[in-house]
Amino acid sequence: MARHTFKLPDIGEGIAEAEIVAWHVQVGEMVEEDGPLADMMTDKATVEMSAPVAGRVIEIAGAVGDQIAIGSVLAVFETEDEEMESPSPAAGESPGPGPGVEQDPGLRQEPEKASGTETSDPSVRKGPEAAHRETGGPRVLASPAVRARAKDLGIDLKDVKSAQDDRVRHADLDAHLRYATSGPAPAASAAAAPAAAEPGTVEEVRVMGMRRRIAENMAESKRNIPHFAYVEEIDVTEIERLRAAMNADRGQRTKLTLLPFLIRAMTRALPDFPMINARYDDAAGVVARHASVHLGFATQTDNGLTVPVIRDAQARDVWGLATEIVRLADAARRGKATREELTGSTITLTSLGPIGGIVSTPVINRPEVAIVGVNRIVERPAVVDGQIVIRKLMNLSSSFDHRVVDGWDAASFIQAVRRLIETPALLFVD
Question: Does the annotation mark 402 as catalytic?
Answer without folding.
Answer: yes
